[in-house]
């Protein structure tokens, strides 16, 4: 689909953005030459593309290491955090949304709607700080920054701390890993809970108005069985669509949450790269985020084909 | 008013109560605090094995009648007044749990829109099986066998294959046949068919009607057929009820009602049926529109559109007249 | 019940928003302090001490005064972003939906390629490469925000163009400009206002996020997000530094979201406008 076209467009834009960097320094002129920024744009673009194809994103000024490697080291932490946050959000928000839809117009519905609109309105960096204030400052329950305490390590198998801890049987590290995940994952999840629960509510209500639900009533099925077997499966499709659309928000949210909790992912790395104006690293990270975003959207498209028989090759 | 029963004495199943018996039945829909009467004072019977057609323009309340019999809408949305019973069992106050036992069991229903009345995410076979899961304790294997048997009864050549298909892989006519198979799964006594062929092509219409007709004969099934297609009604119905603005204007044997309509509305309806065009007559719609339930007045509700109407028609509620055994009309000057 | 909840949304949203607007417009008369005046002797004062209603920050600046001046900045940026993106988005959407054909194809491609970036990332990239300035912040926030407008108005314009009275106007020789002004744009206003309300909420959030990351307007200007970022380091000693500006963001965004909900329920009961 069009996504492949976009994949080709995206790095082009990033390369464009490299050009007008005119923080006038002698260094900049030097870098320009070193990075070929004085050459015509299409050559740069071609070079950028060919480099990208070889997974060569250049070298970071600051870390004196290949950008690709730096990103590779930090990426698992970002993915891990996002995964748990999304999981938490779905586990909380979907039942809330279903409940609100089934009790439409009742008190539960109103409460869920208040929770949802507050969740959407609260800036995640503020929520993060409030959670830190309460859970680590006041209750001293969860740590406020980092991924693992000093001295605790896990053998690197996949790069994902909790998975590695599980695989290697380091139970202490597993426990600590989750303790460190708790607040950032919760913060990131809260932002999504509002959106997902609202959409779930709307989808369940829509699905309830479909005519085949009438058929199910006419079959003599109980309300509960109808909800479980006909309503929810049909409501799931738009919910997944919206979760797909919200992946962008998840990514943006994760950058900020990583910074708040000093989470060692690519969001924090991006923040650092920008503050020292490390352009190759910044470009590389922006490109990586974009590629992740596009890949996730592709995965969602593939998911549909599995769930929705209408999208499989049909004769009707 | 006079209680008018069907020609019970002539019926072969005289000892048995009619499958459906409605007496002075009124329906109300609730919209917030408003309570609107949408069907008033309707009485009719459907005997065992009878094909009863309820005809009328859209907005006449015929679909609501079907939904009331199935109690498809919760009481807070659709209220029922008067008597309504199924094989002698009063339906109006039946607890919801027992009503559920009837729905899809002894009473089943097919709908107007075959394209949307099947769950798009579930295989046809599973959807038919589901009806049996609710009403019988057949095992999985037996249910699957029954599904194939039902699908071949509605003339699918490869029932096993169809059972594994999803609704989007079937055409509209095929879906409606699958709906019929589903409706027959638990050997119902009554099949309610709410405009089952309206959304289909004429050739497929015929096919679906033939299937209903054949199954009805085979299983001694009563059919409540809701339609505005008088040519279908003429072809298949034993008895006909003509509903207009929530009132039963005429009710009787198909021969009488369609053959020599007593009520001007029935006559007008017949006059604009497409079938008549073949006879060279010009098709003419009935001038005017069905009055909305919000502005029903005393007197005949058809009078504004009736070419025979005069002041008397507006004066008082029109009583039901029995023209002959089992043939009733709600007109002060019946045409025959 | 349903009606009550709806009215409640309006009442809450409208009163909170008026409160914020009032603070932003007239707030400078409420507090005698200069938002940028440092006083190291009076740093980190808790709320309600020495006339500092919300306390002072690490440089002894009055937090209320800074929140008020931050409100002006936030609201001004968000309003200009919403205005620019609204005008661009509605025009693009209305034209491409009305004209169809090649112009539509081109705008759809542009929309898709902008949409390929996760929202805030594009803004971050722009500010990182172009440098920080008020204009760049507005550009960075506008660059994707016109898309929801154009999507919705395009869909509506496509419906409108085939309506009888629009066709009639065309047949009678109405020019493109005339038809747009007369028939298309007025009909798009309701949805544009709804999108604008939600968009204002997200613009405020996004601006605050950028400032929080140090990518917003130059640091010498007080902004809610910037105050939060500074206050973060003092969170254990002086919670009010970070909590108060965050509360400002929360109240403003909540008010806008409530009003947006209310508007949508008024004009679009079917909730077709899910894009926020």
TrEMBL record, chain A:
- GO CC aspect terms: plasma membrane
Cellular localisation: Cell membrane
Q: Which InterPro entries match?
A: BPD_transp_1_N (IPR045621), MetI-like (IPR000515), MetI-like_sf (IPR035906)
Question: What is its membrane topology?
Answer: Multi-pass membrane protein
Q: Which residues form the ABC transmembrane type-1 domain?
A: 75-304
List keywords of the entry alphabetically: Cell membrane, Membrane, Transmembrane, Transmembrane helix, Transport
Record-annotated membrane-spanning stretches: 81-102, 114-139, 177-196, 231-261, 281-307
Q: Name one GO molecular function term.
A: dipeptide transmembrane transporter activity
Q: Which domain of life is it from?
A: Bacteria
Which family is annotated?
Belongs to the binding-protein-dependent transport system permease family.
Protein name per Swiss-Prot or TrEMBL: Peptide/nickel transport system permease protein
UniProtKB/TrEMBL annotation, chain B:
Q: How does the record say this protein sits in the membrane? A: Peripheral membrane protein
Q: What is its main location?
A: membrane
Keyword Transit peptide attributed = no
Alphabetically sorted, this entry's keywords are:
ATP-binding, Cell membrane, Membrane, Nucleotide-binding, Transport
Instruction: Extract one GO cellular component term from the record.
Output: plasma membrane
- Where in or outside the cell is it found? Cell inner membrane
Occurrences of domain ABC transporter (ranges): 22-270
Q: Which family does it belong to?
A: Belongs to the ABC transporter superfamily.
Spell out the protein name for this chain: Peptide/nickel transport system ATP-binding protein
From TrEMBL, chain C:
- Share an example GO biological-process annotation for this protein: transmembrane transport
**Name of a matching Pfam family:** OppC_N
Topology relative to the membrane: Multi-pass membrane protein
Keyword terms, alphabetized: Cell membrane, Membrane, Peptide transport, Protein transport, Transmembrane, Transmembrane helix, Transport
Q: Among its keywords, does the record have Lipid biosynthesis?
A: no
**Mind telling me which residue stretches traverse the membrane in this protein?**
6-30, 75-99, 119-141, 162-180, 192-217, 238-259
Please give the superkingdom of this protein's source. Answer: Bacteria
Report the residue ranges that make up the ABC transmembrane type-1 domain in this protein: 71-260
Subcellular location, principal: membrane
Q: Which CDD domains match?
A: TM_PBP2
Report the subcellular localization: Cell membrane
Protein family according to the UniProt entry:
Belongs to the binding-protein-dependent transport system permease family.
Protein name in the entry: Peptide/nickel transport system permease protein
């Amino acid at each position: 689909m069009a996504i492949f076209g976009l994949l080709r467009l995206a790095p082009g834009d990033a390369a464009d953005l490299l050009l007008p960097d005119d923080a006038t320094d002698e260094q900049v002129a030097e870098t320009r030459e070193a990075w070929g920024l004085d050459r015509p744009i299409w050559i740069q673009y071609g070079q950028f593309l060919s480099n990208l194809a070889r997974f060569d994103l250049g070298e970071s000024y600051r870390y004196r290491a290949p950008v690709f490697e730096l990103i590779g080291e930090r990426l698992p932490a970002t993915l891990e955090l996002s995964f748990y946050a999304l999981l938490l959000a779905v586990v909380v928000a979907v039942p809330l949304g279903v409940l609100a839809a089934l009790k439409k117009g009742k008190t539960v519905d109103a409460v869920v709607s208040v929770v949802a609109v507050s969740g959407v309105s609260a800036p995640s960096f503020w929520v993060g700080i409030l959670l830190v204030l309460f859970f680590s400052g006041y209750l001293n329950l969860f740590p406020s920054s980092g991924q693992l305490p000093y001295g605790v390590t896990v053998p690197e198998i996949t790069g994902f701390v909790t998975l590695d801890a599980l695989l290697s049987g380091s139970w202490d590290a597993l426990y600590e890993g989750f303790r460190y995940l708790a607040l950032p994952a919760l913060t990131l999840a809260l932002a999504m809970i509002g959106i997902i629960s609202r959409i779930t509510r709307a989808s369940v209500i829509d699905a309830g108005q479909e005519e085949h639900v009438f058929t199910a009533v006419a079959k003599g099925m109980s309300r509960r069985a109808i909800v479980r077997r006909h309503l929810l499966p049909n409501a799931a499709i738009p919910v997944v669509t919206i979760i797909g659309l919200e992946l962008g928000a998840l990514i943006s949210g994760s950058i900020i949450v990583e910074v708040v909790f000093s989470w060692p992912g690519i969001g924090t790395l991006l923040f650092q790269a920008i503050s020292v104006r490390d352009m190759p690293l910044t470009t590389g990270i922006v490109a990586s985020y974009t590629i992740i975003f596009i890949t996730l959207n592709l995965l969602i498209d593939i998911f549909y084909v599995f769930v929705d028989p209408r999208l499989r090759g049909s004769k009707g | 008013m006079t209680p008018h029963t069907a020609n019970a004495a002539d019926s072969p199943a005289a000892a048995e109560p009619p499958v459906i018996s409605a007496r002075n039945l009124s329906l109300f829909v609730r919209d917030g605090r408003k309570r609107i009467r949408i069907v008033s004072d309707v009485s009719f019977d459907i005997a065992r094995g009878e094909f009863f057609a309820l005809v009328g323009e859209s907005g006449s309340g015929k679909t609501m009648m079907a939904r009331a019999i199935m109690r498809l809408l919760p009481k807070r949305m659709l209220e029922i007044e008067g008597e309504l019973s199924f094989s002698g069992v009063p339906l109006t106050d039946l607890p919801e749990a027992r009503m559920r036992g009837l729905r899809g069991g002894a009473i089943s229903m097919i709908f107007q829109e075959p394209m949307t009345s099947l769950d798009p995410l579930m295989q046809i076979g599973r959807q038919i099986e589901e009806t049996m899961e609710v009403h019988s304790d057949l095992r999985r294997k037996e249910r699957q066998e029954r599904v194939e048997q039902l699908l071949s009864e509605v003339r699918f050549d490869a029932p096993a294959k169809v059972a594994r298909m999803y609704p989007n892989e079937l055409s509209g006519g095929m879906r409606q046949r699958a709906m019929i198979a589903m409706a027959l799964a638990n050997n119902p006594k009554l099949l309610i068919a709410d405009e089952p062929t309206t959304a289909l092509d004429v050739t497929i219409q015929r096919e679906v009607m033939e299937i209903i007709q054949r199954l009805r004969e085979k299983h001694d099934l009563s059919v409540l057929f809701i339609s505005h297609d008088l040519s279908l009604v003429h072809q298949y119905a034993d008895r006909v009820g003509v509903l207009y603005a929530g009132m039963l204007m005429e009710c009787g044997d198909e021969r009488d009602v369609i053959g020599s309509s007593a009520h001007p509305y029935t006559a007008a309806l017949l006059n604009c049926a497409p079938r008549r065009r073949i006879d060279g007559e010009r098709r003419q719609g009935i001038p005017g529109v069905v009055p909305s339930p919000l502005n029903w007045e005393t007197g005949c509700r058809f009078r504004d559109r009736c070419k025979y109407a005069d002041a008397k028609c507006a004066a008082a509620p029109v009583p039901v007249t029995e023209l002959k055994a089992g043939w009733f009309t709600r007109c002060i000057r019946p045409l025959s | 019940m349903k009606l009550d909840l709806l009215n409640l949304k309006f009442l809450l949203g409208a009163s909170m928003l008026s409160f914020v607007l009032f603070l932003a417009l007239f707030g400078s008369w409420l507090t005698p302090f200069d938002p940028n005046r440092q006083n190291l002797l009076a740093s980190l004062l808790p709320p309600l001490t020495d006339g500092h209603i919300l306390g002072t920050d690490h440089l002894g600046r009055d937090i209320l005064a800074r929140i008020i001046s931050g409100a002006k900045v936030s609201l001004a940026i968000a309003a200009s972003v919403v205005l620019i993106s609204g005008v661009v988005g509605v025009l693009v959407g209305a034209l491409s939906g009305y004209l169809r054909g090649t112009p539509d194809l081109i705008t759809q491609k542009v929309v898709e390629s902008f949409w390929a970036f996760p929202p805030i990332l594009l803004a971050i990239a722009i500010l990182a490469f172009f440098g920080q300035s008020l204009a760049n912040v507005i550009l960075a926030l506008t660059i994707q925000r016109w898309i929801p407008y154009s999507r919705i108005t395009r869909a509506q314009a496509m419906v409108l163009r085939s309506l009888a009275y629009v066709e009639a106007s065309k047949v009678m020789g109405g020019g493109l400009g005339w038809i747009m002004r007369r028939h298309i744009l007025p009909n798009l206003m309701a949805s544009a206002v709804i999108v604008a309300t939600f968009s204002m909420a997200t613009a405020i959030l996004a601006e605050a996020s950028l400032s929080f990351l140090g990518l917003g307007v130059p640091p010498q200007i007080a902004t809610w997000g910037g105050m939060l970022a500074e206050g973060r380091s003092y969170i254990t000693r002086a919670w009010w530094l970070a909590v108060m500006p965050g509360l400002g963001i929360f109240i403003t965004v909540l008010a806008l979201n409530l009003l947006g909900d209310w508007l949508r329920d008024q004009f679009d009961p079917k909730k077709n406008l899910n894009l926020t």
